[in-house]
Amino acid sequence: MARSERFSIGNRIDSLWLDLLDSLRKATYSSANQKILALEASLRSVDAIRFFTQIAWEAELMAQSHFISLGNNIEEIGRMVGGWRKGLLTKTPAKEAGERRE
Predict the structure, then answer these.
(1) Would you identify the CATH topology of the domain 3-94?
(2) In order along the chain (102 residues), what is the average pLDDT of each group of 10 residues?
């Protein structure tokens, strides 16, 4: 893989982490309705981080030990954000949140 491609994947992963942090910050200080939307954006960022991290590992841009450690952390973050969202959905009536309950 060319040097520029390696750095492109790394930059994309860095950008996604920053997007995740920003959406979590927004969720922290938003109303319940907006909080759910921000958490959904956070979950999309987690999925994208998981995807690009796997690409980086498959392209042998990171060691397997780093991939496993990072993967465990990504999964934990996803569970935490998903649990936060689920908790809000059970507390917030569906008509107010503009979302269906799952």
Answers:
(1) de novo design (two linked rop proteins) (1.20.1440)
(2) 73 96 96 93 97 94 94 97 94 60 51
Q: Quick count: other Cβ atoms within 10 Å of Cβ 83? A: 11
- Residue matched to tokens 């922290």: 28
Question: DSSP of 25-47, one letter per residue?
Answer: HHHHTS-HHHHHHHHHHHHHHHH
Q: Which residue has the tokens 């930059």?
A: 11
Q: Is 50 helix (H, G, I), strand (E, B) or coil?
A: helix
pTM of the predicted model, to two decimals?
0.82
What angle do the packed helices 64-91 and 32-58 form, to 10 degrees? 160
